[in-house]
Amino acid sequence: MGVIGVQLVVTMVMASVIQKIIPHYSLARWLLCSGSLRWYQHPTEEELRILAGKQRGKSKKDRKYNGHIENKPLTIPKDIDLHLETKSVTERDTIALHYFPEYQWLVDFTVAATVVYVVTEVYYSIMKPSQEMNISIVWCLLVLGFAVKVLFSLTTHYFKVEDGGERSVCVTFGFFFFVKAMAILIVTENYLEFGLESGFSNFSESAMQFLEKQGLESQGPVSKLTFKLFLAVLCSLIGAFLTFPGLRLAQMHLDALNLATEKITQTLLHINFLAPLFMVLLWVKPITKDYIMSPPLGKESIPLMSEDTFDTIRLWIIILLCVLRLAMMRHHLQAYLNLAQKSVDQMKKEAGRISMVDLQKMVARVFYYLCVIALQYVAPLVMLLHTTLLLKTLGNYSWGIYPGLDSDTPVESSLLPNSVYSESPPADGKMKVTVVQITMALGSLKNIFTPLLFRGLLSFLTWWIAACLFSTSLFGLFYHQYLTVA
Questions:
Q1: Parallel, antiparallel, or unpaired: how do β-strands 85-88 and 296-297 relate?
Q2: pLDDT by residue (tens digit) across 292-308?
Q3: Which CB contacts under 8 angstroms, 24+ apart, belong to 119-122?
């Protein structure tokens, strides 16, 4: 049951591509440096002096006051007639960006993992191997690990800020999502069809049978309460990590709508913002069962599609919405970069003075944190996409919408060929006996972690990521629309 043949070749080729080709042809760099994004340059000290009508003192005597040299920063009026110059983002400009290596690695590795997944799916649909491990699962898990690591790094950065309230916001939303997850897990599957209950029951029964075969007595590996408590803690962490990405998305959505002039662009922006809500509704049983699969026509309900067909359509809808979000990325990033000019325009409405250094920092800070914003936009998208891909593979779903294209692999099948069980070890083959025993043990473990369990678990996690994104972005929309002072 080893990883051999085509999958090993694909993995080795993609590893070489990551090392040799992607550094020169990077999708992450192209998304930023293709020329469509323009950033605002901060004014120089000399330009600010000219606008303020000041001239640099020629000697220390000109800057003396009461016998000592002033250390006060130079200030200018806030209502100064300042217009920022724009410049296209180039590869040279990205050197100074914070988190650019993390952003480039996450995006490029996600592209490589997605290509490996597609090639592996084609290979499985044509050759239908039964005794090979699907290597694309490992790639998807690595992508999810990198995405969570990046979000964790960004969240810890907020905790290091002592003066701001970011730490309190993360903790508050973490507790909020913990309570929300506990409430969701209590709801019966008559309303949310994750399949967690049936998946956990199947897992417990299989685990008990496995332990009994090993001569051990057990009531099960873990109780249902402990299982749901662990899920709730995991959900609270995911919610805390997705808090600021959702809040930032709401602000960029409002600014992007103000920039968009075409109706089609505005419509796509609205669909992109509501995409997590569409994903959430796909698992609401009264909607899926009563209005999509069997829509009412008069007094009768007409079966429109089978449950397997709807599961496949649900996977395709999530992937298409993820593609839409990636396509609208530049609109949101440009809306973020325009915050520099927006901050300057807001400053002009205020009275008083501001130091030249503070003004330069206010403008420059927007561009230097561009990759942080890009990561907050991309990381949740990557998590949604590859959780869905894992749901398809581990849940044993199919990409074919019509019944004839459905997967022929049963949900629960024997992992090992009959020869493994019928083969009698030779007298001098102790090593072969050990290999057979290990293979049988691994087969028993895979019979414990069945597609039924993965369907429930990954469906819930996919739904939860979308629910967290929509909750935080909706709160951010309300905050930026009604609570911030214009």
A1: unpaired
A2: 877 777 677 777 788 88
A3: 119/10, 120/7, 120/10, 121/399
Tokens at 124, concatenated = 């499985």
What is the distance between the alpha carbons of residues 91 and 19, in angstroms, rounded to a whole number?
A: 19
By CB atoms closer than 10 A (0-12, 13-18, 19+), residue 240 is buried
CA–CA dist 119, 138 (Å, integer): 14
116, 135 Cβ separation under 8 angstroms:
yes
**What are the beta bridge partners of residue 40?**
86
- Give the span between the Cα atoms of 303 and 363, in whole angstroms: 58
Question: In this structure, what token pair is assigned to residue 223?
Answer: 């109780």
- Would you tell me how many other CB atoms lie within 10 Å of the CB of residue 18? 16
Closest by alpha carbon to 192, among 317, 58, 288?
288
**Structure token digits, residue 381:** 């998208």
Can you give the pTM of this predicted structure?
Answer: 0.86
Compute CA distances 50 → 46, 56, 270, 363, 442, whole Å: 6, 10, 44, 18, 75
The model's pLDDT over 346-378, given as tens digits with 9 standing for 90+, comes to 888 888 888 888 888 888 899 999 999 999 999
Residue ranges in the chain whose pLDDT is less than 70: 1-4, 54-73, 163-164, 215-220, 298, 402-445, 484-486
Strand partners, 87: 39
**How many CB atoms lie under 10 A from the CB of residue 224?**
14
> What tokens appear for 252 in the block?
């960029």
CA pair distance 481, 473, nearest whole angstrom: 12
